[in-house]
From TrEMBL:
GO terms for molecular function: DNA binding; DNA-binding transcription factor activity. SUPFAM superfamilies: PLP-dependent transferases, Winged helix' DNA-binding domain. Keywords: DNA-binding, Pyridoxal phosphate, Transcription, Transcription regulation. Pfam families: GntR. The keyword DNA-binding applies. This is HTH gntR-type domain-containing protein. PANTHER family: HTH-TYPE TRANSCRIPTIONAL REGULATORY PROTEIN GABR. Coiled coil: none annotated.
Length: 461
């Protein structure tokens, strides 16, 4: 007779414990195929449990196929062929330990003191207390209407763009929206990328198995002659502030690229990732704004304006692509939770977003100015040259060194400094003798240490 000792400290129902015991004996072949199990009444009396406990355990084993029953004969162990247990254990994949740096001048980040925690907490409570039914329903495929309307108002106020909420698609990060664009326009298209540029964009295209090529830059941005000679049908550019060179594309080059797209019936993906933080003069007009032929797909993100942890970006589709989007993605829901979208919508509608951008712009300008001042007053000031410091949250630091770019990065890591060289963003690396300095994560208190580490990095001793 099967005998099991019940452990009441496990915190699970008795029938579930019994079911687990019998199942384990079947899997370990302690109970053989077609072996008869005790009758329910006899088993209950033997184990000193209720009949319902035995019935529930047997019923669960029946449902899962471990046993079968024959009317008026009882319950029997099923014949089950188990796969052979592998002799080798599955290798454990160890994550690389995250390196801790004294100063990070590479990663897009934000100082803790700059995030509006109190306002965000207040709005979170307001949204929860409102008991808005939209918090609990399936999100619209393009995102919550409330947030799309707020984005429309922001784009009109900030850059003069006139768009409809029906044109906006909200997604969990810009990389996610890149994937959506590829699925929307087709994997059979030929894409073009700026060289240099973010390597993550090329990774998205590689994973989608699409053809792409790099187009080099000149002093005005994307080389139009090279673009015309290419096989590109879709080109990805950041005309307001190219990363990492910092180039702002002049109006003539913008019009030339728009003319190319119109004549070729192709599309331009405009990545306007940090236009809110132009530190001198007015924001530049977007390519979307001056496009008269619906050739531009506009992308922007809240990761720069709020924090990298906000995996929330949006794109503005040309009107004629909206129906195609609906046809292809009608089955899907928005990839960002309604809860986060509604809080952000309130943040924008109540004027906090505009105030936050203005405050951040002033803060970044103060940090940049202090960082540049200390560099110009440092012992290496004659050996460096700063360019492209007036737009966005990074600048280029040109230097003279006998070390290769690879050696400079290795030296930087050894002294606790995370930074990138310009050459790392090119398709074919070369000796750039240029650092890309991202100061978005610095506070005023960090600047002295950052300058000291840069001096140590670039010192000729």
């Amino acid at each position: 007779m099967l005998t099991y000792h019940f452990n009441h400290e496990l915190g699970i129902p008795m029938y579930e414990y019994l079911y687990q015991c019998i199942k384990n004996d079947i899997i370990q072949q302690k109970l053989q195929a077609n072996e008869k199990l005790p009758s329910k009444r006899v088993f209950a009396k033997h184990l000193q449990v209720s009949l319902i406990t035995i019935e529930n355990a047997y019923n669960q084993l029946l449902i899962e196929g471990y046993i079968y029953s024959i009317e008026k004969k009882g319950y029997f162990v099923n014949s089950i062929e188990y796969p052979e247990i592998p002799t080798q254990t599955v290798p454990t994949i160890l994550e690389k330990p995250q390196i801790q740096y004294f100063i990070d001048l590479r990663t897009n980040s934000i100082s803790l003191s700059n995030f509006p925690f109190s306002v965000w907490s207040k709005l979170t409570r307001q949204v929860l207390n409102s008991q808005n039914s939209e918090l609990l329903i399936r999100a619209h495929q393009q995102g919550c209407l409330e947030l799309r309307e707020a984005i429309c108002e922001h784009l009109h106020a900030f850059s003069g763009m006139n768009v409809s909420p029906s044109q906006i698609v909200i997604g969990a990060g810009t990389e996610y929206l890149y994937n959506i664009v590829i699925q929307l326009l087709g994997r059979d298209q030929h894409y073009a990328l700026e060289n240099p540029g973010h390597r993550s964009i090329a990774k998205v295209y590689q994973l989608n198995n699409v053809h792409y090529q790099y187009i080099s830059l000149d002093h005005d941005g994307l080389n139009i002659d090279e673009l015309k000679k290419s096989q590109a049908q879709i080109v990805h550019i950041s005309p307001a502030h190219h990363y990492p060179t910092g180039i702002s594309m002049p109006i003539q080059r913008r019009l030339e690229i728009l003319k190319w797209a119109t004549q070729q019936h192709t599309y331009i993906i405009e990545d306007d990732y940090d236009s809110e933080f132009r530190l001198r003069g007015k924001p530049l007009s977007t390519l979307y704004q001056i496009d008269q032929n619906e050739r531009v797909i506009y992308l922007n993100t809240f990761s720069k304006t709020l924090a990298p942890s906000f995996r929330m970006s949006y794109m503005v589709l040309p009107p004629h692509l909206v129906q195609l989007y609906h046809n292809k993605f009608a089955f899907s829901a928005c990839s960002v939770s309604s809860f986060e979208q509604i809080i952000l919508a309130e943040f924008m509608k109540q004027g906090y977003f505009e105030k936050h951008i203005n405050r951040m712009r002033n803060s970044y300008k103060m940090i940049r100015d202090e960082l540049l001042t200390q560099l110009q007053q440092s012992v290496i000031h004659q050996d460096i040259n700063i360019t492209e410091e007036n737009a966005g949250l990074h600048f280029l630091l040109h230097y003279h060194s006998s070390l290769s770019d690879v050696a400079i990065i290795e030296k930087a890591h050894n002294i606790g400094l995370n930074i990138a060289t310009l050459s790392q963003f090119y398709e074919q690396p070369f000796e750039s003798q240029t650092l890309v300095v991202n100061y978005s994560g610095l506070s005023l208190n960090d600047i002295q240490l950052a300058v000291n580490l840069l001096i140590q990095l670039l010192s000729r001793q």
